[in-house]
Amino acid sequence: MKELIEKLKINRDLSDEEMIRLLTMPTGTDESLFPNTPEAGAHPVKRLPLNLQFTDDEELLFGTADEVRRAEYGTAVYVRGLIEFTNFCKNNCYYCGIRRDDAGLTRYRLSKEDILKCAEEGYGLGYRTFVLQGGEDLYYTDQRICDIVLSLHQKYPDCAITLSIGEKSRESYEKYFKAGAERYLLRHETASEEHYRILHPAELSLSHRKQCLFDLKDIGYQVGSGFMVGTLKQTPECILSDLRFLQELAPDMIGIGPYLTHHATPFKNCCNGSLAMTLRLISILRLMFPYALIPATTALGTIHPKGREYGLSAGANVVMPNLSPTKFRKLYSLYENKICTGELSKACADCIAARAASGGYHIVTDRGDVMGH
Q: In the chain, what are the helix, strand and coil shares in percent, each to the nearest 5?
């Protein structure tokens, strides 16, 4: 694999056949790389030890990706203060814990005043990017979103405002941009039409989701996309289609994380996604997109106690500590056993700084704009 890894580093690309070889190389973690795809060799997931053993090829891939991120960004790890402001959602995605049909979930919404208070706390901790994330909640009209964004922008003009609120019309995206939102996160989830239909109800459309991403780029946003790792029936070919779509989109931010189950979804009997495959993909994405901002996600920390540390060492360079009121964090339950739901924001910030330092990285709390590409 050494030749393939070096070729990917130099060319930022591989042929389809070569990429599949890299995606399917053995792991040292005793995991199934495709745990919910029997035809790809799925087997029951075992509890992973605290300190994982990877193969020499995996270590080489991680080390090469880390070398590239250090060349682009040094040891900086950028912080985005996350505000999860609503768990209402009009959609019914089969994998999601806040899906419309989960009648047992207690729903909540934050007021503009609540959101501003969260931002104030984050600003005091040095954060200069705020991410407003929520389900596709029809209560938050364009007028309400623009009012929130404008208020944040006026109060914290030195901060970047990121939205992650799903599929909207181009007209809506333009309004948010004019109000002061500069970044938008919208995972495409899967670029395979066949796989998309497995994960989503008929009223949702992959072509529309892709169009939203291209609209966002055209308007001028810094755009983030990405996908889940290890979902039902995901194959190496599905992931290959994700990588090819990202090449077409050329996003500024790429967020991936292991699929994690939730008891109130149709996929409740599925297994969690693979940590090893997620780390492998972080490294592959770093080599394909050296400039990208790639988070070590909360999902990584949920699937393994050192997941975020492993993510940083594999090429990630962003973390997103939670600024939401602690009484609501458990209710934003996209998946089960989510970490950091009870910590105060200051404790969360200190914890993340320590985790970054343990791998030789340092926290940077400025805007952290993407490098040119």
A: 40, 15, 45
355: CATH? 3.20.20.70
Q: How far apart are CA 113 and CA 101, in angstroms?
A: 29
| Spatial contact of 152 and 195, defined as CB atoms under 8 Å apart | no
Q: Quote the number of domains for the chain.
A: 1
Q: Any binding-site annotation on 209?
A: yes
DSSP annotation of 250: -
Residue 172 annotated as lining a ligand binding site: no
Question: Between helices 16-23 and 236-249, what is the axis angle to 10°?
Answer: 120
Q: Whole domain around residue 359: which residue ranges? A: 2-8+27-42+49-364
Assigned domain for 369 exists: no
Long-range contact set of residues 205-210: C-beta below 8 Å, sequence gap at least 24: 208/167, 209/167, 210/245, 210/249
Judge whether 89 is annotated as a binding position: yes
pLDDT digits (tens, 9 = 90+) for 267-285: 999 999 999 999 999 999 9
pTM to 2 decimals? 0.97
